[in-house]
Design goal:
Blueprint (H helix, E strand, L loop, with lengths): L1 H17 L4 H12 L4 E4 L6 H11 L4 E5 L6 H5 E6 L4 E6 L6 E5 L6 H4 L1 H8 L1 E4 L2 E4 L5 E6 L12 H4 L4 E3 L6 H9 L3 H7 L6 H11 L6 H16 L9 H17 L7 H12 L14 H8 L4
Parallel strand pairs: 1-8, 1-9, 2-5, 5-8
Antiparallel strand pairs: 3-4, 6-7
Helix pairs in contact: 1-2, 1-3, 1-10, 2-12, 11-12, 12-13, 13-14
């Protein structure tokens, strides 16, 4: 495992040379990938969401496809279509862009709900069904979706059922002035990325995914996770608390975060590090809840047993 762990950390270091000043967000991205989940990046246009997704694929040697979600996108544009072959007298399936190891669903909330739902089966089952025939997707399979703020023109909010398919949601935000000056003076990020050799390969990623489930979780740590979930269900101001699936996602993400540190057991700080990204898009606030990120308020409110 040591060689694979060194490779994934080298991939992370490579990403940090392209995406400046976002070390925490990058580590969350890699943890999400190790945990076998999908990632949602919500932010204004132009802060590096697309280059981040491309960078992850390049650093880990994954096949990459980008789908630009627009209001006229059809489900067949995502999953593919069966076309009749006159010579053979049968239908042949032509795979869509979802058949890649890393798929960037760019501006997913600019497409209609029907097109958005085309990704649901792929994200959950790692397969698509066309004309009654199921087609397996490549492994590993990872969706990075970008989303513009809902107050922008031409957006269709993602329903809760689709938001829940994403293990994590992060925001990149604007760079600090000194780093923005470095971006302005430096090489184009796409050119820089193309000049860097990949640091990993798909087999390495699959092996590390298998190791995530072996990271030890104590009974006291499980008590802490359950206390966080219970607080979200009991606290006035949250319309719906965290589900059991959210609790599993929180634990799996914490295991991946611990593995990146080379540790064989999860500590409370691992849970606290991933909680805002895992629960922020799953909690719905109602009325006056005190403001701030719901995940951060959750961590601040619940004491470690």
């Amino acid at each position: 495992m040591g060689e694979d762990l060194a490779g994934i950390n080298e991939s992370l270091r490579l990403l940090q040379t392209v995406i400046l000043g976002k070390d925490r967000q990058l580590r969350l991205c890699v943890s999400c990938l190790l945990a076998g989940g999908h990632l949602l990046i919500e932010d204004v246009p132009g802060v590096g969401k697309t280059i981040l997704a491309h960078g992850i694929a390049h650093a880990l040697g994954l096949s990459y496809q980008r789908i630009q979600f627009t209001s006229d996108l059809l489900p067949a544009d995502v999953v593919g279509v069966s076309i009749y072959q006159r010579e053979g007298g049968d239908f042949r399936f032509h795979p869509g862009p979802v058949f890649a190891q890393l798929v960037l669903a760019d501006e997913i909330n600019r497409a209609t709900p029907k097109a958005q739902s085309a990704l649901l089966e792929a994200m959950e089952e790692h397969q698509v069904t066309v004309d009654g025939v199921s087609h397996r997707l490549p492994e590993p399979f990872f969706v990075v979706a970008t989303q513009n703020p809902e107050d922008q023109v031409g957006t269709f909010p993602l329903p809760e059922s689709q938001l829940d398919r994403f293990l994590m949601r992060i925001r990149l935000g604007y760079p600090q002035p000194a780093l923005e000056r470095k971006l302005l003076r430096g090489e184009d990020r796409r050119v820089l990325l193309a000049s860097l050799p990949p640091a990993g390969e798909p087999g390495m990623l699959l092996r590390l995914r298998g190791e995530v489930g072996k990271v030890h979780v104590s009974e006291a740590l499980l008590d802490y996770v359950q206390a966080l979930v219970a607080w979200s269900r009991e606290r006035p101001g949250f319309g719906v608390g965290l589900s059991p699936r959210a609790a599993i996602a929180l634990l799996r993400s914490a295991r991946a975060w611990a593995l990146l540190d080379g540790r064989k057991s999860v500590i409370p700080e691992d849970v606290q590090a991933v909680t805002p990204a895992v629960v922020g898009h799953r909690l719905r606030t109602e009325g006056d809840t005190g403001g701030g990120d719901p995940g951060e308020r959750l961590v601040a409110a619940v004491a470690v047993p």
